[in-house]
Amino acid sequence: xxxxxxxxxxxxxxxxxxxxxxxxxxxxxxxxxxxxxxxxxxxxxxxxxxxxxxxxxxxxxxxxxxxxxxxxxxxxxxxxxxxxxxxxxxxxxxxx
Length: 96
Known about the structure:
Blueprint lengths: L2 H7 L6 H9 L3 E3 L2 E2 L11 E6 L2 E7 L15 E8 L7 H5 L1
Antiparallel strand pairs: 1-2, 1-3, 3-4, 4-5
């Protein structure tokens, strides 16, 4: 299954077009390698997604062509979720 379709069906990202944009920006890694929207996803793959100010790492548990909302979270297991601490540029200049 393609990465962009997995992200949509699993509801990690709501729309496939958004999933394609995020993956084509290099913000998703599968098994430690940067993945594009057309990258094939397999059961057991470990995926890290950069969402603005956090990283979400999940393991693919199963692949389905479509799911109901309540069943979507069965497609993956959250391994780790961490916040990204970024410094604001020029922060000191504005405070002076």
